[in-house]
Amino acid sequence: MMIEVFKTNVQEMDRSRILIQKLLEQFPASKINFDLEDCDKILRVEGKDFCANRIIELLKLNGHYCEVLT
């Protein structure tokens, strides 16, 4: 099981739901959620088979900033 945490600029709950749906289409076996209360607007992905770079690209293609939180 892998867990990756990303810093994003997603602000709205509605937008986060849309992005989660798009991410689940690519990584259906993953648990994905946003913490928009956190100052880094955290995206957390947990699963066996996902690629951090593909997640970053998907968010960028949808107009959002995303980077692995270190």
CATH architecture: 2-Layer Sandwich
Say what oligomer this is.
single chain
Overall pLDDT, averaged?
A: 97
> How does the overall form come out from the CA principal axes?
globular
Gap from first CA to last CA: 19 Å
CATH names the topology as Alpha-Beta Plaits
So how many helices?
2
The ordered H/E elements are: EHEEHE
Helix content: 25-40%
Order of neighbouring strands in the sheet with most strands = 2-3-1-4
Descriptive key words:
70 residues, alpha+beta, Alpha-Beta Plaits, four-stranded antiparallel sheet, 2 helices, 34% helix, Methyltransferase type 11
Layout of secondary structure:
Layout: E1 2-8, H1 13-26, E2 31-35, E3 42-47, H2 52-61, E4 66-68
Antiparallel strand pairs: 1-3, 1-4, 2-3
Protein name: Methyltransferase type 11
Organism: Mucilaginibacter aquariorum
Explain this structure.
The protein is α+β, with helices and mostly antiparallel strands. The chain has one domain (2-68): 2-Layer Sandwich (Alpha-Beta Plaits). Helix content is 34%, strand content 30%. It contains two helices and four strands. The protein has a four-stranded antiparallel beta sheet with strand order 2-3-1-4, with helices on one face. The mean pLDDT is 97.
Summarize the structure.
By secondary structure, this protein is α+β, with helices and mostly antiparallel strands. 34% of the residues lie in helices and 30% in strands. It has helices spanning 13-26, 52-61; strands spanning 2-8, 31-35, 42-47, 66-68.
